[in-house]
Amino acid sequence: MLGVAAYGLWGLVPVFWPLLAPAAPLEVLAHRVLWTLVFMAGVLALLGGWGMLRSLPLRGWAMIGLAAALVAANWGLFIYAVSVGQVVEVALGYYICPLASVFLGVLVLGERLRPAQWVAIAVATTAVLVIAIGDGRVPWLGLGLAWTFAIYGLIKKTVPLPATASLTAEGVVLAPVAAAYLVALQLAGTGTLTGHGAGHVALLLAAGPVTAVPLLLYGASARRIPLSTVGMLQYLAPTIQFLLGLLVFGEAMPPERWAGFGLVWLALVLFTVDLIRSRPRRPSEEVVAAAELH
After folding, report:
1. What is the dihedral of CA 245, 249, 253, 259, to 10 degrees?
2. Domain locations along the chain
3. pLDDT digits (tens, 9 = 90+) for 209-250
4. Contacts of 294 (CB under 8 A, 6+ apart)
5. Minimal CA–CA distance to 254: which of 124, 96, 134?
6. How far, rounded to the nearest angstrom, does the alpha carbon of residue 170 sit from its chain's CA centroid?
7. Rg (CA), the chain
């Protein structure tokens, strides 16, 4: 239930970001960074985890800086995509993200793929081509979301911190830039923190817990359930996003897009079935949370 709650909230989060209007996407991103740090700093203080950050070596902080840049790009693309009515493309990005991660494992880590995994990647690549041809443009928002998060996950493998401490450290790196940008907006008279009522201020502050709470739920669930279950649950978020884009935001789904998404879903079925079949039969195996998305 914790896992379903985490992925369910990640799936529903596109409904939240439009509530922050008239704040522009960059201002929303800056508030998200700043208030997520404030929220996570409190969580880390309760957990007594600040010592892990103080003892992190310089190389670790360098990797945190790279991870922070990638997660900021991912968050920014997500907020922008929602603001321009491309929630279905957001779903596309997070559907293909697991396949992008597997492909990075081949390119960077020298991992070897099984035949079914190669077929899944080929089918997903065909899906992107079908969607691009049908739309008359490359789905760059979806691809950007997939690849920034996939590379982010690869970088996180080198950071010796749990998810809560890692997200806090990323906030420490990003917060000075975010705060400076927000101050500059307010001084220029273009910021929305003031002049739009207490409700707007509350919504901007809520960007912190909206980002962090699903992560904490995910962390609590991932230590208790098998890897195969996590693998199945991860498709819940993009499925909810897809339905939101289609049914709530009324985004167009011409036949070419349906064909492309059909191929994406086929690729994920192949990928997931192969993952379950090839997994060692250790029912007690648990996976540790190491992701912050959406």
Report:
1. 10
2. 2-278
3. 999 999 888 877 767 776 556 667 888 999 999 999 999 999
4. 10, 13, 78, 94, 211, 214, 237
5. 134
6. 14
7. 19
